[in-house]
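Need a sequence for this fold. Nothing fancy.
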């Protein structure tokens, strides 16, 4: 079965719009601050796309820009202003940052309670210690698809391919919290095929096309492809989709899979951040 991200996002959208309508009745309208540093074309496109997403939810949003030659101090000053601005519910920095600008230095300046994509070490700590917080939108999109299609996680053998701080590690923790048995594979893993062939669920977040091929998948396994790559002008994932889909029981397409849900998770984080801030 094709695990349709667009269908998942649509179901979540209806729920979120109800929550936003309720918050407006209480006099609160969330606002998303999109931080755009430098002249990256993909970042500019995604920033504009997020503005349209926010508009669809009737949420306020604004792009805060700094030039390619902005200093870290310039960006930190802007973030501090956004931290102190009570009209701003959440801050979403576009990545990557310009060459020479240290992402970790910028991220650590964001108020954890406005950290929409769960990038700060505070929110990472909250995730790994089972506390409430704002967590990564892409890992949560993976979990949302699994939940929408009723895929059980308790006791299942799950392989996560990729160990990044943004996707691999957080999604592994989220799976552990749901009582899955999780193995993380990476570029130094030996005999990876032997590991993936035993998995009930495989989540691929490597950032490289053809990272999961049909001979690595057990018949009937669930395959979640987080990758987004451009190959000869075509958008593809990390999975050899055409061949793996013949073996897998369920699989997400690219495009139309995890990425379609990630933007919805941004709005969900914004709604959650607003609720937390109103409790203060």
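Here you go.
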């Amino acid at each position: 079965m094709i695990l349709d991200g667009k269908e998942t996002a649509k179901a979540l959208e209806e729920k979120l719009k109800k929550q936003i309508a309720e918050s407006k009745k209480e006099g609160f309208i969330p606002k998303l601050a999109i931080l755009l540093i430098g002249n990256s074309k993909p970042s500019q496109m995604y920033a504009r796309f997020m503005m349209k997403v926010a508009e669809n939810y009737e949420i306020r949003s604004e792009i805060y820009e700094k030039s390619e030659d902005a200093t870290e101090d310039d960006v930190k000053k802007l973030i501090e202003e956004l931290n102190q601005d009570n009209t701003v519910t959440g801050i979403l920095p576009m990545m990557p940052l310009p060459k020479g600008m240290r992402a970790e230095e910028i991220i650590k300046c964001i108020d954890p309670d406005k950290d929409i994509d769960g990038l700060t070490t505070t929110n990472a700590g909250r995730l790994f210690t089972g506390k409430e917080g704002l967590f990564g939108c892409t890992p949560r999109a993976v979990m949302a698809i699994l939940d929408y299609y009723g895929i059980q996680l308790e006791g299942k053998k799950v392989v996560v391919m990729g160990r990044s701080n943004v996707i691999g590690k957080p999604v592994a923790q989220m799976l552990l919290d749901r009582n899955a048995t999780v193995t993380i594979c990476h570029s130094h893993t030996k005999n990876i095929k032997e590991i993936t062939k035993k998995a009930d669920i495989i989540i691929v977040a490597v950032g490289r096309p053809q990272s999961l091929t049909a001979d690595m998948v057990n018949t009937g396994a669930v395959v979640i492809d987080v990758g987004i790559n451009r190959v000869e002008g075509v958008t593809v994932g990390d999975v050899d989709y055409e061949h793996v889909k013949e073996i897998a029981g369920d699989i997400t397409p690219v495009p139309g899979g995890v990425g379609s849900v990630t933007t919805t998770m941004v709005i969900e984080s914004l709604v959650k951040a607003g609720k937390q801030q109103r409790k203060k």
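For context: The chain has a mean pLDDT of 96.
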